[in-house]
Amino acid sequence: MAFPSKLLNEGEHVVVSTRTHPKALILPGLVLVVVAAAVIALSTTTDSTALGVVCGVVAALAVVWFLAGPFLRWFTTTYTFTNRRFIKRSGFIAKEGRTIPLNRISGVDFEIGVIDRIFGCGTLVVSDASTEGRVELSDIPAVEQVQLKVSDELHRLSGGDRHDDGS
């Protein structure tokens, strides 16, 4: 997914742009399967039109609440690192964003649990000098590669022509 170039400053380019791993949609997908199975089971066991309408409305509300909401949150939330800043954007109608200049970021760490390892994702922890202190980005695909790219950009920003071995 490309970050809109109209939102970049002159001389700024995208280093990494990602969103949460699609595994975040597994539970909502399971809810959809359960709701569909319940509707099918109810439709075969009852002849009541009124009950069928009520069940249909409840099923539609469950699908909107448990599937459409999480899908829209997943689809509209992006995490972007440029050569100057970190940008978190979310929202479809009402938008929300957070920006941290790269020179204020003091560390980028990652955590990978057992389930995350299976799916190839993890949590990226961006630490800065603000009062909020840190931002946790859960379920980031290829989190180790993202952490390497961002760390490299931070190193470059801080005068990366020095050798880390002290020479």
Question: Overview of this structure, please?
Answer:
This protein is α+β, with helices and mostly antiparallel strands. It has helices at residues 26-45, 49-76, 114-119, 143-157; strands at 14-18, 78-82, 85-90, 96-101, 105-111, 121-128, 134-141. The strands form 2 sheets. A 4-stranded antiparallel beta sheet has the order 1-2-3-4. Helix 1 packs antiparallel against helix 2. The longest helix has 28 residues, at 49-76. The chain is elongated, with a radius of gyration of 22 Å.
Low-confidence stretches: none
- Quaternary state reads single chain
Q: How many alpha or pi helices?
A: 4
Write down the overall mean pLDDT: 84
**Strand count:** 7
- The share of residues in extended strands comes to 25-35%
Q: From N to C, what is the helix and strand string?
A: EHHEEEEHEEH
What's the story with the biggest beta sheet?
A: 4 strands, antiparallel
Shape summary: elongated
- Helix- and strand-based class? alpha+beta
Strand order of the largest sheet: 1-2-3-4
Gyration radius, rounded: 22 Å
Distance between the termini: 40 Å
Percent helix among the residues? 40-55%
Mind sketching the topology for me?
Blueprint: E1 14-18, H1 26-45, H2 49-76, E2 78-82, E3 85-90, E4 96-101, E5 105-111, H3 114-119, E6 121-128, E7 134-141, H4 143-157
Antiparallel strand pairs: 1-2, 2-3, 3-4, 5-6, 6-7
